[in-house]
Amino acid sequence: MTPRDLRREIAELLGDTTAARWLVETATGIDDWGADGDIEVTERMVAHLDAMVARHRAGEPLQYVLGRWGFRHLDLAVDRRVLIPRPETELVVAAVFDVLDGADHRRVADLGCGSGAIGLAVASELPLEGTSVLMSDVDADALSVARANLAGIGRAARNVTVVLGDWCAPLRDLDPFDVIVSNPPYIALDDPDVEPVVAQYEPAIALFSGSDGLDALRTLAREAPGHLVPGGWLIVEIGTSQGAAVCELFSAAGLVDVSVDIDHGGHDRVVRGRRPSE
Ligand SMILES: C[S@@+](CC[C@H](N)C(=O)[O-])C[C@H]1O[C@@H](n2cnc3c(N)ncnc32)[C@H](O)[C@@H]1O
User: Fold this and answer.
1) Domain boundaries 82-274, corresponding CATH code
2) Helices 117-125 and 140-150 sit at what angle, rounded to 10 degrees?
3) Between the chain's N and C termini, which has fewer beta carbons within 10 Å?
4) What's the gap in Å between 137 CA and the centre of ligand 1?
5) Single pTM value for the model
């Protein structure tokens, strides 16, 4: 039996050729199909593959089964302790780079970092000199995953600090930030549209935030501006129907130049606002 045979078999079983390729690559450790597609696989590789396929067929998201997922240029470790990084969150990172364009000091806080997707993308894509990133989460299990991913970004890791804490509490007593960014939980507790697979497998603390989904966003809008430098930015990911409400929260908190970024599906996705310059 070769990796190529296994891929064919699993693709037929799952009806998904891409998932089959990723599962076989993870189980066998091969990534060069030209050189290794026809080697003889071991019993151990087949047992590993069978276990992964069984989990996926039982409904577990492919990302958790593989134990990794891509986010921008990063290959992040993910498991059920953290939200699976979503493609729309890449827009949040793009918004951070947009507001920092040309800045020579870049002090960024990523609150509710989960796997570390936002903070680590920011730390690894900005210049090494003049960048510092604080990543925090209230969930110690999520922080363990973020720390594991931190080890994977190489030299840029020296610019990153990881701390446990509730929203802006870890920022107390620290110098103010140029950007505070967050993809907080923003789904209403009784939202009937949440996909069952999401509710079943992803951590509730990463998804739900009060009766209207806005509890965390209210806290961030209230607390974060006090931790920004004059002219500093608060940038958050939001649910598609929350644009107007979150803009109002930002304006009521004294932020200016408040605007919404639209995602590739044409939906409200990111809100940004600036602390007035003094
Ligand atoms: C939607 S997930 C985002 C994870 C990651 N930033 C991403 O974009 O993939 C929200 C994160 O907020 C964290 N969180 C929830 N309540 C929090 C709180 N009170 N303080 C800090 N983080 C919190 C959750 O543990 C979770 O990791």
Assistant:
1) 3.40.50.150
2) 30
3) C
4) 6
5) 0.96
